[in-house]
Structures are given as C-alpha cells and as structure tokens.
Write the structure tokens for this entry.
Amino acid sequence: MSVARALTIAGSDSGGGAGIQADLKTFQMLDVFGMSAITAITVQNTLGVHGIHHIPIDIIVGQIEAVVTDLGVDAVKTGMLAQVPVIEVAAHQLQKHRLTQVVVDPVMVAKGGARLLDVDAENALIKHLLPLAAVVTPNIPEAEVLIKSPISGLEDMKEACRKIHSFGPRAVIVKGGHLAGAAIDVLFDGTDFIELPSKRIDTRHTHGTGCTFSAAITACLAKGDTLSAAVFTAKSFITAAITDVLELGQGHGPTNHWAYAKNAKQGKH
Ligand SMILES: Nc1ncnc2c1ncn2[C@@H]1O[C@H](COP(=O)(O)OP(=O)(O)OP(=O)(O)O)[C@@H](O)[C@H]1O
Ligand SMILES: [Mg+2]
C-alpha cells in the first residue's frame, strides 16, 4: 500500500486546536501520513498562550533531515517559524531536498491582532520563504502587513493577491475570515482569480482555523491534487470543522477535525 506523506514545520499547541496538533489531525483525516518538525513548544489552551519554549536550530534541522531522508515527504507546510534563523534554515532545507509542494502559512498576526513576528522575521519570510511556496495563505491582517496597506473588501483582497504574488510564490490565497459578511477566500495563481465563498458561522470556536485550512491544502497536494482542487477540499474541510462545534474550553475553542469525514459518511459531499 502506498500512502501520501506530509510534513509540518510549525509550533506545538498543547491545547490541540492549532499548530502541529491541528496539522497532524487534518493530515490523518484526509488519509495522509503526517510528520512534524517542531519549532517551538507553546503552553497554550483556549484562553491564550501562556508560555513559549523555542527549540534549538540544530534540533529543528535534525527533525526535517530525519524524516525527509528516511520516510520521504510529498508535501510540506510551514506554520509558526517565529525567528529569523528558523525561517532561514527551513528555506534552506526545502531547497536542499527539492521540496516543491510547499504551503507557507505566513503566521504573523494572531486572531486577536497580536503581532507574532518581529519586522526582521517578516522580511526574512518574504525574502527566503515566499519564493519557494506553491501557495501562501495569509489572513487579512497578514496580507495587510505584507502589502503595507489596508484591506476592506473583495477588490482589495484581489489587489493584495497580485502584490503578494509578485514576491515569488506560485499562488496566493488571501483568507476572508477576518472580514465582516460571508467568509470569502480569494485564490490567485498569477493569471486567474477563484473566489471561495462560505456563509459566516457565528461562533467563538475558531481557534486554529488557519492551521487546519493550510494543512488540508497540504494533504491534498501530497495526494497529487491540483492546487484549485486542494483549495476547494480545504474550504469544505474547514467550513465543516467550524460548523460542527465541539464546545471545548472556556475561551476560543478548537474546530472539529472529524466533521468533514462525518459529513462524507453521511453522503454530504
Ligand atoms: N466564522 C467563520 N465562518 C466561516 N468560515 C470562517 C470563519 N472564520 C474563518 N473562516 C474560514 O477559515 C479559514 C481560515 O481563515 P482565517 O482568516 O480564520 O485564518 P487565520 O486568521 O489565519 O486563522 P488562525 O487564527 O487560526 O491563524 C478560511 O477559509 C476562512 O474563510
Ligand atoms: Mg493564521
């Protein structure tokens, strides 16, 4: 039996809703064998991040080398890289091992608005990582940081796609989770725009939506799907995961990684 394999290079969320935990759950639910290179360990629950321990660079590189050279990797995603040296070694590893199915989730701004990267790290991400990406998946605040101007609607999102595409990724998807109204994401491959609409679900349980969405794209690319097919599946996966609320924790709870498969069993896809 041959199985598709995906690697996530990201931080650990002890609360299980975001970071590598969300990525691995998503890979598993989409029938992809998941592996991880942990960049940082966060002390986290649905109420917030209470502590962080950065993993030494040689251990991060070691994790990537270990899995790529032994088990093999069909697609990879990057999440929270946090510091300039981590961004640099991740980019180096992607090039060294000729990994081209790369999903870059440019984790820079948390759901609550907190900046997660300093300016040097933001610049390193643009310079070293974006040119290696098959697709980059900023949320609205991250897209605003990347293009240095505000985004308030669909036309602004399209303009942001164009500008971010000029930094070198093969495609860009600007996610609409942070705007009011319908949750519309916009995909741009350098030629065409595709709009991915879903109705906005009124819930506070959206912790890890971005991680889950980009992990689902990665899983589908690992299986050989085209980018547009991967993004459509990922949108269905995250919409199901937000809709079918688990009601865990006292704060912003995790999404439901079982929901998409549950819907499939009931013939809803
Ligand atoms: N309330 C909602 N209802 C429906 N879809 C949503 C909602 N919130 C987010 N989404 C969808 O979830 C996906 C992730 O987008 P979002 O903008 O939340 O990412 P993010 O801010 O990077 O998330 P995170 O805070 O986990 O990093 C997108 O497909 C977006 O449209
Ligand atoms: Mg995000």
